[in-house]
Design a protein that fits this description.
There is one protein chain. The protein is α/β, with parallel strands linked by helices. It has a single domain, classed as 2-Layer Sandwich (Nucleotidyltransferase, domain 5). Helix content is 35%, strand content 16%. The chain has a 5-stranded mixed beta sheet, with helices on both faces. β2 and β3 form a beta hairpin. The radius of gyration is 22 Å and the shape is elongated. The protein starts with a strand and ends with a helix. The relative contact order is 0.16.
Amino acid sequence: MRYVVLDTETTGLDPDDGHKIIEIGCIEINNRKVTDNSFHKYINPLREIDIEASKVHGMTASSLRDKPIFHDIYDEFLEYIADSPLIIHNAPFDIGFLKKEFGYLKRKDNFINNEIIDSLKLARKISPGKRNTLDALCERYSVDNSDRNIHGALLDARLLAYVYLKLTIGQNNFNDLSVEQGIQDDDIDTSTKDFKVIKASSDDVILHESYFK
């Protein structure tokens, strides 16, 4: 089963305020293995980038002036993702930007209809009440993010790919996560099903209770 892990960087936070995508990074997971088949594009947004956004990803409008616009990379992007489910951390953010960019194209075809797995939603279901940022998840699941001094779409997609694989080890049923397939039976941990339970003897129980008294 093929999955595509996707991340974007943008000029700001709100596509309805005219902010645009400036970087797309995609990493392939095939049969639960992260492959070297990736997709990565920097994009000229034809507008300025918010200062706070630049502090996050380190890019400026001047550094992107020689890059293609979104229109020029869209078909290649579609060809790469094909019909694979997309794994995205906080999916509404990236999908909102992609939909807005698609709207600018005024194309007659439909927006992508790939199934979406929101890894943030998944992480919150597994670890409710905990911090579930990408950095927090890397720390929790021992994924090395020491190179992540600033955000980058391709780097973040690769980190998320490894986080997702660790998130889904031993899991085979997540309700209301948009996608509930692709977690193979051989990933489910059955190593404890044959363990023998050895109960304490009556003498051990007496010694135990005496100790606490």
